[in-house]
UniProtKB/TrEMBL annotation:
Keyword Transmembrane helix: yes
Keywords: Cell inner membrane, Cell membrane, Membrane, Transmembrane, Transmembrane helix, Transport
Protein name: TRAP transporter permease
Annotated membrane topology: Multi-pass membrane protein
Residue ranges of domain TRAP C4-dicarboxylate transport system permease DctM subunit in the record: 139-409, 419-639
Keyword Transmembrane included in the entry's annotation: yes
Segments crossing the lipid bilayer: 31-49, 61-77, 98-118, 153-176, 196-217, 224-241, 247-273, 317-343, 364-383, 435-452, 473-498, 529-549, 556-583, 589-606, 618-642, 648-671, 683-708
Main location: membrane
Biological role: Part of the tripartite ATP-independent periplasmic (TRAP) transport system.
Cell compartments where the protein resides: Cell inner membrane
Length: 721
C-alpha cells in the first residue's frame, strides 16, 4: 500500500478517464479567476449549510448562476480542445474564447433574474412579459449547451425532444396526442414555476448533493480513503484472490464517502488492478471486478449518490430512513461480486497477499485514525434528526480541523468534534456552536499561514484546492439537475407520464396472461406476473436510458414516468424509487456506454467491451436484488409492511440465489462444476428471487442433486489431499 498515488495523480487519472472531468486547461491568470469563482461557490454552500439557507428561489438561483456560468469557463465547447492551453488574444481573452465569457455572463444574469423578480412572480406566472420570455429562453438554451459540455449529448437530446413534444403535441399519434403549447407558455412553465428548471431536482443538488460531494473530496484529501484502503488490504488481502477481495472491500468502504463510480474506480483501482493482474487474473476480469465494486459507491450508505437525496424530497422522508433502507441491498451487491471473485480464485488456485504485501491493521489505524472522526460526526448528526446539509456542514468542518492541524492537534480536535456532536442533540442548538467550530477551523488555518512553515502552507493549500475541486466535481451534476427539470416540466405540462405508465402496465398484463395461458402450472397469478413484466420493462428502460444519461437524471426521469406504473400495481413508493435507482446505477457497467467499466479497462489495458460484459455479469447482485425487495419489501426495513419473518426469509433466499448464480457463471462451487450442473444451478436460482415458501422449495429441490454431488466431490478432494 506504500505505492498509493497522490491526490494530484488520482485527479489526473479521473480527468483522463471520465468525460465529466475533462476540464479545460487555461493560463495561470485565468486559472486564478476560475479557481476563485469555484472557491466562492463552495464557500457559499458551506456557509449556508451551517448558518441558514437563503430563500428557496434565491438559493437555487445563485447556485444555478454559478454552475452554468462556470461550465462555460471550465469546459471547452469541443472535448478535443480541452487539453490545449491557448494564449490570450482579443478573441480569446485569458485563453478562453470570447463567446464563452459572454455566455457565462449571460446565463448568470438570466439565472438570477427569477430571484430578482421574486416579489412579483406570483403576478407573472401564466402571464409572462417579453423580458421574462427572453430571459427564460437564454437560460434554457445556454443551460442545454452547458449540460452538453459537462456530461455529453444524451440528456440534452432528451430535453430537446421533450420540448418538441410539448410544442407539437397535436401532430403526435394516438395516446400521445395533446393540445400543444406555445413557446411563451412553455417558457413560463419551465422558467417561472417550480415545476421546471427551478424545481426539486435543482433544489436537492443545491441543498444537499453539493455539500456531500464537497465532503467526499475533503475526506479523501485528509486521508480517509487511504485509511479505508489500508483496512481493506489488512482484513481481506490474505484470503484467496486477495487483491480482488481488497478491491471489493475497499470499494465498499470508499463508496461511503464517494458517490462517483469513476472516482471510486480510479482511486481504489490504481492499487488493486495492477495487484490482481500480477496475481494471475485476466486483465478484463481485474478491471471488471474493480469497476463493478466501484459502482456500489452510489448505493452504499451513508453518503450514497445524488439520487438518494432526491428520494428525501420526492418521498418526504428523513434521509436516515433512506440510509437504513439501503443497507441490505448494498450488502447484496458486494456479496454478489465477492462470491464470483471467490469462486474464480478457488477455481484457478490463486493465492492471497503475502505479509510483505498486505499492511498490518494496527499500523493502518496508527497512521490515519483521526480521519474517521469527521465521518463519525456526519453520521451522528444524520441520525439525530437534523438536516443532511447540517450533517455535511459538520463533516466538512471536521475535515478542515483534521486536515489543517498537525498530527497530535488533529487527534485532539477530531475527538473534540466527535464527542461534541455525539452529545445530546440539544448541543447543536446552542447559539454560536456552529460559529465556534468554524472559527476553530479557520484559526488552525491562520496558524499554519502565520507560522510560514512549509507544512502549514501545504495543509492550507490542500484544503483550498479541495474546495475548488469539490465545486468542479459538482457543477456537472448541477447542470444535469437543472436540465432534467425541463423533462419533468414537460411531463407535468402534458400529462405524458400517466400515458406511458398505462402503456407499460397494459403491455405487461398482456404478456402475463399470454405466459400463464401457455404455462398454466407456474406458481403465481396474473397480478404477480404482470408486476414481474412491468419490473422487467422498467429495468430495461432504466439501463438503456442510463447509456446516455447520468444516474441522477436517469432516476428523476424514470421516477416521473415509470414509478407511477409500479404504484398502479400496489408497489410501495419507497420500494418503487429504490428499484428505479438501482437499475439506473447499473448503466455504469452496462455496454455500450459503461463509463466505470471503461475507466477500469483503460487502467488495466483491457478490451473495454469485454470488460463491460464481465462487469455486468459480476453485478448480478444489483440485477437480482431489486426484484427481491419488490416482492419482499421487508428487505428495505423502512416499509409499513415490515416483518422480521419476511426480512429473514427474503434475505436468506437472496443470498442463496446470488450464490447459485455466482457458481453458475464461475464454474465452481465446492469443486469444479460440469456444464449440466451449471445449467441446473442457474435454473434453480431463479425461483428464489420471489422468496415465497413455494418458490424457495422449488429452487432448493432443483439444486439439491448438484449440491449433494458437490459435497461428495469436495470430500473426495480433501481425502485425496
Amino acid at each position: 500500500m506504500a505505492n498509493q498515488p497522490s491526490a494530484a495523480e488520482l485527479a489526473r487519472l479521473e480527468e483522463e478517464l471520465d468525460p465529466e472531468m475533462a476540464f479545460r486547461k487555461v493560463p495561470h491568470g485565468t486559472a486564478l479567476i476560475v479557481g476563485g469563482l469555484l472557491l466562492a461557490l463552495s464557500a457559499f454552500h458551506y456557509y449556508t449549510a451551517g448558518f441558514g439557507l437563503l430563500r428557496e428561489t434565491t438559493h437555487r438561483g445563485i447556485h444555478l448562476a454559478f454552475v452554468l456560468g462556470l461550465i462555460f469557463l471550465v469546459f471547452s465547447g469541443r472535448k478535443s480542445d480541452a487539453g490545449t492551453v491557448h494564449a490570450s488574444t482579443f478573441w480569446r481573452p485569458g485563453g478562453v474564447p470570447l463567446h464563452d465569457w459572454i455566455c457565462a455572463a449571460a446565463v448568470a444574469v438570466s439565472s438570477l433574474y427569477v430571484p430578482y423578480i421574486f416579489e412579483d412572480l406570483v403576478f407573472r406566472v401564466g402571464n409572462p412579459s417579453t423580458l421574462d420570455v427572453v430571459m427564460g429562453t437564454i437560460t434554457i438554451v445556454l443551460m442545454i449547451e452547458a449540460t452538453r459540455r459537462a456530461i455529453g449529448w444524451g440528456l440534452p437530446l432528451i430535453a430537446l425532444f421533450a420540448m418538441v413534444y410539448a410544442i407539437f403535441g397535436p401532430w403526435f399519434p394516438g395516446i400521445f396526442l395533446h393540445p400543444g403549447a406555445t413557446w411563451s407558455v412553455l417558457v413560463n412553465h419551465l422558467y417561472l414555476t417550480s415545476q421546471g428548471v427551478y424545481g426539486v431536482a435543482l433544489g436537492v443538488v443545491a441543498t444537499y448533493v453539493f455539500h456531500f460531494v464537497l465532503f467526499g473530496v475533503l475526506a479523501t484529501r485528509i486521508g480517509l480513503g487511504r485509511l479505508f484502503l489500508g483496512v481493506a488490504a489488512a482484513v481481506a488481502g490474505r484470503f484467496a484472490g486477495g487483491p480482488a477481495k481488497v478491491s471489493i472491500f475497499g470499494s465498499a468502504l470508499f463508496g461511503m464517502i464517494s458517490g462517483s463510480s469513476v472516482a471510486n474506480t480510479v482511486t481504489v483501482g490504481s492499487l488493486t488492478i495492477p495487484m490482481m493482474i500480477r496475481l494471475g487474473y485476466q486483465r478484463h476480469f481485474a478491471a471488471a471486478v474493480e469497476s463493478t465494486a466501484a459502482t456500489g459507491g452510489q448505493i452504499t450508505p451513508p453518503i450514497m449518490g445524488a439520487a438518494a437525496f432526491l428520494m428525501v424530497e420526492f418521498l418526504n422522508l428523513p434521509y436516515a430512513t433512506i440510509v437504513i433502507a439501503a443497507v441490505i441491498p448494498a450488502f447484496m451487491h458486494f456479496f454478489g461480486v465477492l462470491m464470483q471473485v471467490h469462486f474464480e480464485a478457488r477455481r484457478n488456485g490463486m493465492r492471497g497477499m503475502t505479509d510483505a504485501e498486505a499492511p498490518k491493521l494496527k499500523e493502518v489505524f496508527a497512521r490515519d485514525w483521526p480521519t474517521i472522526a469527521p465521518l463519525f460526526g456526519l453520521i451522528v448528526v444524520l441520525f439525530t434528526g437534523y438536516t443532511p446539509y447540517l450533517a455535511a456542514f459538520w463533516g466538512i468542518t471536521g475535515c478542515m480541523l483534521v486536515g489543517l492541524a498537525h498530527y497530535r492537534a488533529a487527534s485532539a480536535l477530531a475527538f473534540a468534534l466527535a464527542i461534541g456532536i455525539a452529545a445530546p442533540t440539544e448541543f447543536l442548538r446552542v447559539p454560536g456552536v456552529n460559529a465556534a467550530f468554524t472559527l476553530a477551523a479557520f484559526a488552525v488555518m491562520a496558524h499554519g499561514v502565520l507560522l510560514k512553515s512549509a507544512e502549514g502552507r501545504k495543509r492550507v493549500n490542500d484544503m483550498v484546492d479541495a474546495f475548488i475541486l469539490g465545486a468542479k466535481y459538482a457543477i456537472g451534476v448541477g447542470a444535469a439537475a437543472a436540465t432534467v427539470g425541463i423533462i419533468v416540466g414537460v411531463v407535468t405540462l402534458t400529462g405524458v407520464g400517466f400515458k406511458i405508465s398505462w402503456i407499460v402496465t397494459s403491455l405487461a398484463d398482456q404478456w402475463a396472461k399470454g405466459v400463464l395461458d401457455l404455462v398454466p402450472f407456474l406458481p403465481f397469478d396474473v397480478k404477480t406476473a404482470t408486476l414481474f413484466f412491468t419490473l422487467l420493462l422498467t429495468g430495461i428502460v432504466c439501463i438503456l436510458l442510463g447509456c446516455g444519461v447520468p444516474t441522477t437524471a436517469n432516476y428523476i426521469i424514470m421516477v416521473t414516468v415509470a414509478a407511477p406504473a409500479l404504484g398502479m400495481l400496489g408497489v410501495n413508493p419507497l420500494v418503487a424509487h429504490f428499484f428505479v435507482f438501482y437499475y439506473g446505477v447499473l448503466a455504469d457497467v452496462t455496454p455500450p456506454v459503461a463509463i466505470a467499466a471503461y475507466a477500469g479497462a483503460s487502467m488495466a489495458g483491457a478490451d473495454p467491451f469485454k470488460t463491460g460484459n464481465t462487469a455486468f455479469r459480476l453485478a448480478l447482485g444489483k440485477v437480482l436484488v431489486p426484484f427481491v425487495f419488490v416482492f419482499s419489501p421487508s428487505m428495505l426495513i423502512m416499509v409499513p409492511s415490515f416483518t422480521w419473518t419476511e426480512l429473514i426469509g427474503s434475505t436468506a433466499a437472496c443470498l442463496a440465489s446470488i450464490t447459485l448464480l455466482s457458481a453458475t457463471f464461475s464454474g465452481w462451487l465446492l469443486a469444479p462444476l460440469a456444464m449440466w450442473e451449471r445449467v441446473i444451478l442457474g435454473i434453480a436460482a431463479l425461483p428464489l428471487i420471489l422468496a415465497t415458501p413455494t418458490s424457495v422449495a422449488i429452487g432448493l429441490v432443483l439444486a439439491a442433486p448438484v449440491l449433494l454431488r458437490q459435497a461428495l466431490a469436495r470430500r473426495a478432494a480433501l481425502m485425496a489431499a
